[in-house]
Structures are given as C-alpha cells and as structure tokens.
Amino acid sequence: MQQRLSFYIDRDSFLHRLNPLTKLTLVFTIITLAFLGLSYWLPSILFVLVIVPLSYVGKISREFVKTTLRLLLPVVGFLFFMQAFFHPDGSTELFHIWILDVTVESVQFAYLTATRILTMVASFLILLLTTHPSDLMSDLTRRGVPGNLSYVITSTLQIIPQMQAKAATIIDAQRSRGLETKGNLINRTRALIPLVGPLVFGSLVEVEERAIAIEARAFTARIKKTSLRAIKDTNGERLGRWSMLFLIILAIGLRIWL
C-alpha cells in the first residue's frame, strides 16, 4: 500500500479544479470572519453552512469527517474544558466542583474559542485535502512570491503526513524485530523509545537530503522558472478573490469601528 506524503485526495470536483490561490483566499476569509465577526454564533454558522458543505462539494466528506473526529474534536474538547473551568472572568455560577467554579460567562467564552479554533483548522483541512502542495507552490511562485517562502509553506503543510508515514514504517520495522507495540499502557510507553530515536534522526537526514536535492535543481537560481503543469485561473475566480478580500477588509473595519 502506497503511503501518502500529503493530505491531498485526488478527486474530480469543482473544489479541486479551483485555483490554489482562490482556495487560500477563501480560507483566510473564513478565519477572518470567524475571529473578527460581530456575531457570537458566526464561527458555528461558518462551520455548519460553509465548511461542511464544501467537504461535500469537494467529494472529500468521508476523509474530512474522519479527520475531524479523530484529530480536531479531542483538541477542541480539551480546549473547551480548560477554558470553561479556568477562565477567570464570570459572575453567574452554573455549578461548583471542589475549588473550581464554572460560570455562564466562562462556558460562553469556552464555546466561542473552541468554535473559532475548530473553524480555522477545519478550513485549512479543506484546503489540504483538495489542493496538491506542488500546485500551491507553483502558483505562489508564479505570482511573485519568493521561492524560499513558497517552499516553507508547502513543507509545513506536508509535515504531519510525512511524519505519519515515517512513523508507520519504523513501527513495522520494529515489529518485525519482535518489539511489542500493542497491549497495555506500559508496553506502549516502552515502544516509544525505539520509535522516537529513528524518527527524529531520520527526519534530520531527510531534511539534509531534500536541501541537496532542491539545490541540485537550481532552486536558488535568480532566473524566471517555468512549470510543466499549467494552473488555470479564470476571470470569475479573480472576481471572487477580490470579493473575498473586500469581505476581509470590511470585517476588520467593522471590528475597529464598533
């Protein structure tokens, strides 16, 4: 089974065919509205009425729901718990546990913070699942973004799946040597030591090898580079990006004014 080195899922959908910059602009628009919007329920509305439908439009709803349940909800749930129990402000007490007071204000703040984080990460997840890293890097470089910055952005988006693939390979290799990686908590804790060492050192070696590879391809050459893959950009998408940029400016302006 071939291991994926990115979150990208190859599907034939309207969202996949959009220009990478259009999807990136959409993500920043959603994040801006979620954090700077004047409505308390706006992050929740954006998640339910924008992000979830986009996962169906992009035909990646199954992968989106699976990743959300396994990765995002535990983090968001922990964040909600911490904010609800340890937020200092609040006067309307809901209930009391030992030395902790849970107030209406703390629960409201915890819910708003959690939904904002959920909306932000979920919107980036839609981008990662429907945009190939090479397309994003090529399009940003074509628009004048420095190649070093484009490479940093693309590499960052690929860190988690690459680490997962490398960890799975190391675990299989250690199991073939008789290492017990399943069972109780003690066995799993012992298995971490033989896993962490090869994972960290292997990642450092991979960074060096990648640096040598991109340098051999004249990555830092100060000439105009071309791409074998043409990335489409229609007038409708350009108009959509300007409209989303206007929404971002409007949200920032209203936040400052009010």
What can you see in these coordinates?
The protein has a two-stranded antiparallel sheet. The chain is mostly helical and 258 residues long. It folds into two domains: 144 residues, no CATH class; 70 residues, no CATH class. Helix content is 72%, strand content 3%. The model has no long low-confidence stretch (mean pLDDT 80). It is built from nine helices and two strands; from the N terminus they run ααααββααααα. A hairpin with a 2-residue loop joins β1 and β2. α2 packs parallel to α9.
- In whole angstroms, the N-to-C terminal distance is 55 Å
Q: Give the SSE order as H and E letters.
A: HHHHEEHHHHH
Structural class designation: mainly alpha
Q: Give the neighbour order of strands across the main sheet.
A: 1-2
How large a portion of the residues is in β-strands, by DSSP E?
under 5%
The main sheet comes to: 2 strands, antiparallel
Outline type: flat
Helix content: over 70%
Please state the oligomeric state of the protein chains shown.
single chain
Count of DSSP H/I helices: 9
Using the CA coordinates, give the radius of gyration. Answer: 22 Å
Mean pLDDT: 80
Tally of discrete structural domains: 2
Q: Unreliable stretches, pLDDT < 50, 5 or more residues?
A: none
| Number of distinct beta strands | 2
